């Protein structure tokens, strides 16, 4: 028997009742009950529940060491555009000068490979363009503190990082560029030819055993790194592997008299210094005002529409102001509680991928995520997997088991003055742009809290 059922049922069979809380911004909730009652069960209607919903912009999204170099731009209908520029340091894996003394510099190129997931977001049928630029200031991580007001640090920030909002300057002139049609499932690698001047300079330093190439620390003082910048007309964001190669190519005559080629290869040696700068432009949409300076837009201002989006850090805020009063009713014993989220996309087969799973952050009074809803009978993060709908009108859904949440809500003050943030899950939260738009009905989000309970006289 469920742990919330505190009373012992007597010899009479008690009926089970269902409370369905249909959620939307400032929408009154209703309770639908079975019509059978016994002498020791009282039935009453509750219609005072409301759910407040809004769309929230998260701050301080960690973006370094995700393993994904995100580059590109995509325009999402009714939501605006997202864009990612990737920055990274380069380093030597060996400081041995193994270049033959007779070698001559040939060329410099940057070799990129798609991520193992072959991830993309947007329209890949069009030509995309990337340009490579030399960073003009050192990359550095940031350590968050509570600040003078001792505000909380988001639970997803676990140490020093480079956050996605951070921008570092880079030279306006490009070292190289590449235009291509991203058949992402078939591409083996992308090869970008770079300016030979910088390649020849590094080549000469290696041959001369220059102090600048004696260690990665020295080299990074001389060469801050590279930025991969998408063209403003791009239509897709592509994930590339961080196992790239910066190749200084040379040729020489071997002892056998034949011409031979070789390369000194630099790679990303410090993953903490590879990150993605993520920006967005919501001009002309219902979410135009949503930003880091205006972090919340109520669904009453967006026609009931709300969404969650990875990378850009958008979550849907949910609060149930009357729920605790219902839970504290001593005549009520809850048997089951499910939060059901319907999406406007019935399947995952789309150029704009939706999250495979969602989670629920718990945000404090400052709107900072400080914890998360755990699995119903465990301590790990509860993840609600996507259940596909169909093309005949049934929406896709995400379903959370909130029985443990309600138990805590009833027994402690842990969730007092807290709200829930519907979010994509990590690590995709920081390394993809997956987006779920919540379905609407009569200009209200289709979010339901279904509670199965027994009520006693």
TrEMBL record:
Domain of life: Bacteria
UniProt xrefs under InterPro entries: DUF4270
This protein's name: Uncharacterized protein
């Amino acid at each position: 028997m469920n742990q919330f059922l505190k009373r012992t049922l007597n010899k009479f069979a008690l009926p089970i009742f269902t409370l369905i809380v249909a959620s939307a911004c400032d929408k009154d909730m209703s309770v639908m009950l079975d019509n059978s009652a016994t002498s020791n069960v009282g039935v009453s209607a509750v219609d005072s529940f409301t759910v407040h919903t809004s769309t929230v912009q998260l701050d301080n999204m960690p973006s370094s060491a995700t393993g994904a170099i995100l580059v590109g731009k995509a325009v999402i209908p009714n939501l605006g555009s997202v864009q990612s520029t990737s920055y990274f340091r380069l380093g030597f894996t060996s400081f041995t000068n193994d270049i033959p003394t007779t070698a001559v510099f040939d060329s410099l190129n940057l070799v990129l490979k798609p991520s193992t997931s072959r991830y993309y977001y947007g329209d890949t049928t069009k030509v995309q363009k990337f340009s490579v630029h030399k960073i003009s200031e050192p990359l550095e991580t940031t350590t968050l503190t509570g600040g003078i007001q001792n505000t909380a640090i988001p639970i997803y920030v676990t140490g020093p990082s480079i956050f996605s909002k951070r921008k570092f300057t880079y030279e306006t002139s490009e070292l190289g560029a590449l235009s291509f049609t991203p058949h992402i499932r078939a591409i083996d690698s992308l090869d970008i030819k770079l300016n030979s001047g910088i390649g020849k300079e590094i080549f000469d330093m290696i041959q001369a055993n220059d102090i600048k190439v004696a260690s990665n620390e020295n080299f990074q003082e001389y060469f801050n790194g590279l930025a991969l910048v998408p063209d403003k007309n791009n239509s897709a964001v592509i994930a590339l592997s961080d196992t790239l190669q910066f190749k200084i190519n040379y040729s020489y005559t071997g002892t056998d008299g034949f011409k031979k080629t070789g390369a000194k290869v630099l790679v990303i040696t410090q993953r903490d210094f590879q990150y993605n700068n993520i920006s967005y432009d919501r001009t002309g949409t219902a979410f135009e005002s949503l930003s880091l300076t205006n972090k919340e837009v109520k669904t009453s201002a967006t026609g009931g529409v709300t969404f969650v989006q990875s990378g850009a850090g958008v979550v849907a805020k949910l609060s149930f102001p009357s729920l605790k009063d219902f839970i504290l009713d001593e005549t009520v014993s809850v048997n089951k509680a499910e939060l059901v989220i319907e999406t406007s996309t019935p399947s995952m087969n789309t150029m704009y991928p939706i999250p495979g799973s969602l989670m629920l952050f718990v945000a404090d009074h400052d709107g900072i995520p400080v914890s998360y809803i755990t699995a119903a009978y465990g301590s790990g993060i509860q993840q609600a997997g996507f259940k596909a709908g169909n093309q005949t009108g049934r929406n896709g859904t995400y379903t959370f088991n909130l029985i443990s949440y309600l138990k805590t809500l009833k027994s402690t003050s842990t969730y007092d003055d807290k709200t829930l943030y519907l979010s994509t899950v990590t690590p995709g939260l920081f390394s993809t742009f997956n987006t779920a738009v919540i379905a609407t009905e009569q200009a209200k989000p289709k979010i339901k809290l279904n509670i199965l309970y027994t009520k006693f006289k």
